[in-house]
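no rush on this but wanted to send it before i forget. theres a chain ive been looking at and ive put its sequence and its fold in token form underneath. please have a look and point out which stretches look like helix strand or loop to you. thanks a lot i owe you, the record is right below:
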Amino acid sequence: MKKTESKNSSFNFAQKMHRLEEITHSLESDTDVEKALEQFKEASELARELQDYLSSAENTISTIQTRFERKK
């Protein structure tokens, strides 16, 4: 995830996930190799962005849990 995305609420997880699903369905049925290659590239980038976002969210949750445990 880009630093601007981590601080910017414009990252739309649901929208990106939906687009990834659209590409997946298209790749399952499309036979145009050039189009499929472009879609695969886009899907790979989306998957990386989503994974980065989820990793960041997981780190945030861990940090919050650690702080909470210290205050007990």
User: Anything to note?
Assistant: The chain has one domain: 10-71.
